Structure formats: C-alpha cells, structure tokens
Amino acid sequence: MPVWLLADASSRYGSRYPQALRFASEAARLPAVQVRLASGLFRDLRVVKSDWELQRLQRAVDITRLAQRAIMRRASGTDGLGIQGGTSATTGPGGPGGPLNESVLDGIILSTYRTHGAHWGFPSIVASGPNATTLHYEENNREIASGELVLADIGAAVGYYTADVTRTFPVGGVFSEAQREIYKVVLDAHARGVAAVRPGMTMRRVHEVARKVIADGLLKLGLITSTSGNQYRMWYMHGTSHWIGLDVHDVGGRDMPFRPGMVITVEPGIYVREDTLENLDDTSRNRALIEAIRPAFERYRNIGVRVEDDVLVTEDGHRVLSEGTPRTIEEIEAFMANPAGR
C-alpha cells in the first residue's frame, strides 16, 4: 500500500524534514506500506505559476513597488518633515525636528502594505549606511544621516504569494561619486542577469553572467587584483537569484531549466564591509592583496548596494514584474527630486 508523504515542500527543508524521517522510519517496519515522498510533485506544481497565481504575485509586486516609492519619497527630504535634526520627544524619530530613522521607513512600508490589503511576505530589511553591508540586517532602528544610502529589501504578500524587490537610494536624493561607481557596477550586473532570463536557462548560469560583470567591475574599481579566483567573494558573497512564490525563497533547483511561468529574482550586489580586510587570514598573499586594494577600500568603505527585481519567464524571454520602480541612478534622482509629481 503506497503512502504519500508531503513532509515539508519548502526549498529549505525538503525530504530532510524531521517529521518525515520519523514517519518513514516507523513505516519501514510495515512491509505492506510503501512510503513515497510527494515533495517533488508539489515542487513541480509550485515552480510553474498559473495565471491565477501570477495575478496574486503581480498584485504583491505592485504593492511592494508602492512601498518602495513611498520610502524614497520620505527619504528625499521634500515632504517638509526633514531628514536630520535633534531628537524630538513630541514628534519622535523622523518627525519635524527629529532625525530620520530606519524604523520610520519600516513603518511606512508596513502601512503601505496594510492600506492596500496586503501583509508582509518577510520582515523588511531597511539598512542604512554601514548596515547596508550586512546581508540579512534585521534591527531597522538606526538614525540615518543625509547622503547615506538606504538598502530596502522588502516584499508584500497577497493571497500567500510574496514579492521580493530591493532598491538602494541616497537619503536626500543625490548619489555621491563613490556611491555612483559602486551602483553602476551592480546595475550593469543586474541588467545582464535579467537579459539572460529565458526558457532553457538556469539559475546557476544567470548567476555566472552577473558574477562575471561584478568581478570585472570590482577589478576596475580597484577592490580586487584578479578576476580568475574568488577575490570577488569578499564583496559579493551570495547568489544572484532564487525562486519566489508561496515562499520568498521558494522551491526549485539551481540547475532546473527555466520554463514559461517560472518566477525568479535577479539581485546582484556589492557590500564593502569595514571589517572585511581585517578578517582575512594573515598570510603573505593576503597582506599583499590588502596593500594593493587599500586605497579603493578606503574610498568605498561602508557602501552596500543591491538591486533586485522579480522576473517572469515567458515563451519568448522574460518580463520584469517589478518594472516601473525607479532603478537607474537617473530615475532615482529624478523621482526623489520631485516625488509628488511622479
């Protein structure tokens, strides 16, 4: 008698889910029972989205786009509330006369979700200044200075389907030269990665496209001395893509060929953490590397940039579901200069 066991269908556990193992162990004592895991069946059902699913995912993305624009508007300093100043007991952080805080932007995000009938698909990452170099920053409680970057990795959920969109923008609305230089490399990697999405492609190959752009850019910036090894991983230490759907990191493998109806993220980044060099092993090779890249490191220290969009695989290529959220330097600066008119 076959018994199908769902276990846990999420990509993080799969057939290793402890309850599944315990059940399978007990069932093995019964010769008439044939335990079969259904996780693979559900994975295949989840990874290709129906039109009904895509409608909900698109709605989640659209609400996330509204939230991104709302926090850019607040961080622009054009709304009369200000972005710097002394702490105010009456107005709180981010109010008139008070400093802008990550928590204020986090609150705007949540308010936007609820106003439009959504919930959060995962806790928002609102990382300013040096916090933007921490991949899964959670505190969201730092006071933000004018001119610093804010990395906002956020996603609304509608009908259990979650979006995942990241934007990085300058408080006050104008990128510094150093910020621009890092941002341009990330944006180029993002554009190349998105362009590579099409039927038959894989997540691993999309990552390789973006990784090469990042490595070449880091070499030109002086943050690495060679593109042939893993030096780039000092500043870019995560994958370019993951699946999204019922889970923000949904089911599916990195070598699974893309088919129409699949949805992935494309999210390259560069993170110049201030403690990266001091955490390298003390070897003659690393000492030479540190000496060579020290000037660039000092120029870009504490800059963290990620650009992320949700991309649907189509019959003839792809469609960016989160299109319309300011992405380029010019789009972000233009929006933040006149957010009320856009």
Give a concise summary:
Helices cover 36% and strands 15% of the residues. With 342 residues, it is α+β, with helices and mostly antiparallel strands.
Could you explain how this protein is built, in words?
By secondary structure, the chain is an alpha+beta fold. The protein folds into two domains: 2-42, no CATH class; 49-341, Creatinase/methionine aminopeptidase superfamily (Creatine Amidinohydrolase, Alpha-Beta Complex). 36% of the residues lie in helices and 15% in strands. The protein contains eight helices and 13 strands. The chain has helices at residues 18-27, 39-47, 51-75, 102-115, 177-195, 203-221, 284-300, 329-337; strands at residues 2-5, 34-37, 119-120, 125-128, 149-154, 156-158, 161-162, 165-170, 263-266, 269-271, 304-306, 309-314, 317-320. The longest helix has 25 residues, at 51-75.
Show the helix and strand layout.
Blueprint: E1 2-5, H1 18-27, E2 34-37, H2 39-47, H3 51-75, H4 102-115, E3 119-120, E4 125-128, E5 149-154, E6 156-158, E7 161-162, E8 165-170, H5 177-195, H6 203-221, E9 263-266, E10 269-271, H7 284-300, E11 304-306, E12 309-314, E13 317-320, H8 329-337
Parallel strand pairs: 1-2
Antiparallel strand pairs: 3-6, 4-5, 5-8, 6-7, 9-12, 10-11, 12-13
Helix pairs in contact: 3-4, 5-6
